[in-house]
Amino acid sequence: RCYLFSGLKDIKSILLYLVDQIGEGVTFDEYFESLLIESNEIKELYKQTFENKIINDDDKNKLKKFFIDNEEKFKEYAKFERNIALKYINQKGIAENSSALVDLGWSASIQNNIQNTLIHNSTKKKLKGFYIATYPIKYKIDVNSYLIKNGTPNELTDIISPLISIFELIFTAPHPGCVRLTLDKNKISPIFQNNSPEELIRIKASER
After folding, report:
1. Which residue from 78, 100, 133, 184 could staple onto 148, CB 3.0 to 4.6 Å apart?
2. Residue ranges of the alpha helices (H) in 50-131?
3. Is residue 48 packed enough to be buried (19+ CB in 10 Å), middle (13-18) or exposed (0-12)?
4. Looking only at Cα atoms, what is the longest distance across the chain?
5. SS3 state of residue 180
6. What is d(CA 183, CA 85) in angstroms, rounded to the nearest whole number?
7. Predicted local distance difference test score (pLDDT) of residue 195
8. Cβ neighbours for 162, distance < 8 A, ≥ 6 positions apart
9. Model-level pTM?
10. What is the pLDDT of residue 123?
11. C-beta separation of 4 from 113 below 8 A
Protein backbone atom coordinates (compact mmCIF):
# COMPACT_ATOMS: atom_id res chain seq x y z
CA ARG A 1 0.00 0.00 0.00
CA CYS A 2 2.84 2.42 0.81
CA TYR A 3 3.60 3.36 -2.82
CA LEU A 4 0.27 2.29 -4.32
CA PHE A 5 -1.13 5.80 -4.76
CA SER A 6 2.17 7.64 -5.22
CA GLY A 7 2.83 5.42 -8.25
CA LEU A 8 -0.76 5.53 -9.54
CA LYS A 9 -1.09 5.56 -13.34
CA ASP A 10 -4.59 4.13 -13.78
CA ILE A 11 -6.92 2.92 -11.06
CA LYS A 12 -7.75 -0.42 -12.72
CA SER A 13 -4.12 -1.53 -12.47
CA ILE A 14 -4.20 -1.45 -8.65
CA LEU A 15 -7.69 -2.85 -7.98
CA LEU A 16 -6.16 -6.28 -7.24
CA TYR A 17 -4.36 -4.78 -4.25
CA LEU A 18 -7.07 -2.30 -3.29
CA VAL A 19 -10.07 -4.62 -3.37
CA ASP A 20 -9.46 -8.28 -4.25
CA GLN A 21 -7.26 -8.90 -1.20
CA ILE A 22 -9.78 -7.66 1.38
CA GLY A 23 -10.02 -10.30 4.09
CA GLU A 24 -13.14 -11.88 5.56
CA GLY A 25 -15.15 -10.05 8.22
CA VAL A 26 -13.91 -6.55 7.32
CA THR A 27 -16.50 -3.75 7.43
CA PHE A 28 -16.67 -0.81 5.02
CA ASP A 29 -15.54 1.62 7.75
CA GLU A 30 -12.63 -0.60 8.79
CA TYR A 31 -11.55 -0.96 5.17
CA PHE A 32 -11.52 2.76 4.43
CA GLU A 33 -9.72 3.55 7.70
CA SER A 34 -7.04 1.02 6.79
CA LEU A 35 -6.29 2.91 3.55
CA LEU A 36 -5.37 6.08 5.49
CA ILE A 37 -6.51 8.36 2.68
CA GLU A 38 -6.22 12.01 3.75
CA SER A 39 -8.95 13.47 1.58
CA ASN A 40 -12.17 14.78 3.10
CA GLU A 41 -13.80 14.84 -0.35
CA ILE A 42 -13.12 11.16 -1.01
CA LYS A 43 -14.07 10.25 2.56
CA GLU A 44 -17.46 11.96 2.26
CA LEU A 45 -18.14 10.34 -1.11
CA TYR A 46 -17.29 6.95 0.38
CA LYS A 47 -19.62 7.46 3.36
CA GLN A 48 -22.44 8.55 1.06
CA THR A 49 -21.97 5.47 -1.11
CA PHE A 50 -21.57 2.66 1.43
CA GLU A 51 -23.29 1.77 4.66
CA ASN A 52 -21.10 0.27 7.36
CA LYS A 53 -21.51 -3.52 7.09
CA ILE A 54 -19.26 -6.49 6.49
CA ILE A 55 -17.92 -6.53 2.91
CA ASN A 56 -18.95 -9.56 0.85
CA ASP A 57 -17.93 -10.60 -2.68
CA ASP A 58 -20.73 -8.59 -4.34
CA ASP A 59 -19.64 -5.54 -2.36
CA LYS A 60 -16.12 -5.88 -3.76
CA ASN A 61 -17.53 -5.25 -7.24
CA LYS A 62 -19.27 -2.15 -5.91
CA LEU A 63 -15.99 -0.98 -4.39
CA LYS A 64 -14.21 -1.44 -7.72
CA LYS A 65 -16.90 0.65 -9.41
CA PHE A 66 -16.44 3.34 -6.75
CA PHE A 67 -12.70 3.55 -7.45
CA ILE A 68 -13.20 3.57 -11.23
CA ASP A 69 -15.99 6.17 -11.13
CA ASN A 70 -13.83 8.47 -9.00
CA GLU A 71 -10.53 7.80 -10.72
CA GLU A 72 -9.75 11.46 -11.37
CA LYS A 73 -10.25 12.31 -7.69
CA PHE A 74 -7.87 9.51 -6.69
CA LYS A 75 -5.31 10.69 -9.26
CA GLU A 76 -5.50 14.17 -7.78
CA TYR A 77 -5.07 12.73 -4.28
CA ALA A 78 -2.14 10.64 -5.51
CA LYS A 79 -0.15 13.85 -6.06
CA PHE A 80 -0.24 14.46 -2.30
CA GLU A 81 1.22 11.03 -1.46
CA ARG A 82 3.66 11.23 -4.40
CA ASN A 83 5.11 14.49 -3.13
CA ILE A 84 5.92 12.90 0.25
CA ALA A 85 7.21 9.68 -1.35
CA LEU A 86 9.57 11.61 -3.64
CA LYS A 87 10.91 13.62 -0.70
CA TYR A 88 11.64 10.33 1.09
CA ILE A 89 13.19 8.77 -2.03
CA ASN A 90 15.43 11.80 -2.54
CA GLN A 91 16.29 11.88 1.15
CA LYS A 92 17.49 8.27 0.97
CA GLY A 93 19.47 8.91 -2.22
CA ILE A 94 17.46 6.38 -4.21
CA ALA A 95 16.85 8.84 -7.03
CA GLU A 96 20.53 9.75 -7.40
CA ASN A 97 22.36 6.45 -6.86
CA SER A 98 22.12 2.96 -8.28
CA SER A 99 19.47 1.32 -6.11
CA ALA A 100 17.86 -2.09 -5.98
CA LEU A 101 14.91 -3.75 -4.29
CA VAL A 102 15.41 -7.27 -2.88
CA ASP A 103 12.22 -9.25 -2.32
CA LEU A 104 10.64 -12.66 -2.82
CA GLY A 105 9.29 -11.52 -6.15
CA TRP A 106 6.33 -12.94 -8.05
CA SER A 107 4.69 -9.87 -9.64
CA ALA A 108 7.28 -7.27 -8.48
CA SER A 109 4.40 -4.91 -7.62
CA ILE A 110 6.33 -2.87 -5.03
CA GLN A 111 9.17 -2.21 -7.47
CA ASN A 112 6.65 -1.27 -10.14
CA ASN A 113 4.90 1.21 -7.82
CA ILE A 114 8.19 2.81 -6.75
CA GLN A 115 9.32 3.01 -10.37
CA ASN A 116 6.03 4.68 -11.33
CA THR A 117 6.69 7.16 -8.52
CA LEU A 118 10.24 7.82 -9.76
CA ILE A 119 8.90 8.67 -13.22
CA HIS A 120 7.74 11.97 -11.70
CA ASN A 121 11.23 12.71 -10.35
CA SER A 122 13.57 14.83 -12.48
CA THR A 123 16.31 12.16 -12.53
CA LYS A 124 13.95 9.40 -13.77
CA LYS A 125 16.28 6.82 -12.17
CA LYS A 126 15.67 3.16 -13.02
CA LEU A 127 15.30 0.83 -10.05
CA LYS A 128 16.60 -2.76 -10.24
CA GLY A 129 14.80 -5.69 -8.65
CA PHE A 130 16.31 -8.96 -7.41
CA TYR A 131 13.94 -11.82 -6.61
CA ILE A 132 13.76 -15.52 -5.86
CA ALA A 133 11.01 -16.03 -8.42
CA THR A 134 8.89 -14.17 -10.97
CA TYR A 135 5.63 -14.92 -12.75
CA PRO A 136 5.39 -15.65 -16.50
CA ILE A 137 4.34 -12.10 -17.35
CA LYS A 138 5.92 -9.30 -19.38
CA TYR A 139 7.69 -6.89 -17.05
CA LYS A 140 8.30 -3.26 -18.00
CA ILE A 141 10.87 -2.85 -15.23
CA ASP A 142 14.38 -4.22 -14.58
CA VAL A 143 13.61 -7.57 -12.94
CA ASN A 144 16.16 -10.29 -12.10
CA SER A 145 15.21 -13.66 -10.61
CA TYR A 146 17.40 -16.52 -9.45
CA LEU A 147 15.30 -19.60 -8.72
CA ILE A 148 12.30 -19.27 -11.02
CA LYS A 149 12.41 -16.87 -13.96
CA ASN A 150 9.13 -16.01 -15.68
CA GLY A 151 7.56 -19.17 -14.30
CA THR A 152 10.29 -21.55 -15.45
CA PRO A 153 11.46 -24.21 -14.82
CA ASN A 154 7.95 -25.61 -14.53
CA GLU A 155 8.91 -28.39 -12.13
CA LEU A 156 10.22 -25.88 -9.57
CA THR A 157 7.16 -23.66 -10.04
CA ASP A 158 4.89 -26.64 -9.30
CA ILE A 159 6.80 -27.31 -6.08
CA ILE A 160 7.03 -23.74 -4.81
CA SER A 161 3.61 -22.33 -5.81
CA PRO A 162 1.69 -24.18 -3.03
CA LEU A 163 4.32 -22.96 -0.53
CA ILE A 164 4.24 -19.24 -1.34
CA SER A 165 2.61 -18.31 1.98
CA ILE A 166 5.40 -20.13 3.86
CA PHE A 167 8.08 -18.29 1.88
CA GLU A 168 6.28 -15.01 2.59
CA LEU A 169 6.22 -15.77 6.33
CA ILE A 170 9.94 -16.62 6.41
CA PHE A 171 10.86 -13.45 4.53
CA THR A 172 8.44 -11.08 6.28
CA ALA A 173 9.53 -8.56 8.92
CA PRO A 174 8.30 -8.96 12.53
CA HIS A 175 6.33 -5.71 12.52
CA PRO A 176 3.18 -4.39 10.81
CA GLY A 177 3.37 -3.41 7.14
CA CYS A 178 3.95 0.22 6.18
CA VAL A 179 0.71 1.71 4.87
CA ARG A 180 1.84 5.23 4.04
CA LEU A 181 4.53 7.86 4.55
CA THR A 182 3.66 11.02 6.41
CA LEU A 183 5.37 14.42 6.50
CA ASP A 184 5.45 16.40 9.75
CA LYS A 185 7.73 19.45 10.13
CA ASN A 186 10.04 18.24 7.36
CA LYS A 187 10.35 14.82 9.00
CA ILE A 188 9.11 11.82 7.02
CA SER A 189 7.85 8.89 9.06
CA PRO A 190 6.13 5.59 8.19
CA ILE A 191 2.57 4.84 9.29
CA PHE A 192 2.09 1.16 10.05
CA GLN A 193 -1.12 -0.80 9.65
CA ASN A 194 -3.25 -1.64 12.67
CA ASN A 195 -2.53 -4.88 14.46
CA SER A 196 -5.52 -7.07 13.62
CA PRO A 197 -5.66 -10.53 15.30
CA GLU A 198 -4.41 -12.08 12.05
CA GLU A 199 -1.56 -9.56 11.82
CA LEU A 200 -0.49 -10.27 15.40
CA ILE A 201 -0.31 -13.98 14.60
CA ARG A 202 1.86 -13.25 11.56
CA ILE A 203 4.19 -10.99 13.57
CA LYS A 204 4.63 -13.56 16.34
CA ALA A 205 5.27 -16.32 13.81
CA SER A 206 7.85 -14.24 11.93
CA GLU A 207 9.79 -13.61 15.16
CA ARG A 208 10.51 -17.32 15.55
Report:
1. 133
2. 57-69, 71-91, 109-118
3. exposed
4. 53
5. strand
6. 9
7. 67
8. none
9. 0.80
10. 65
11. yes
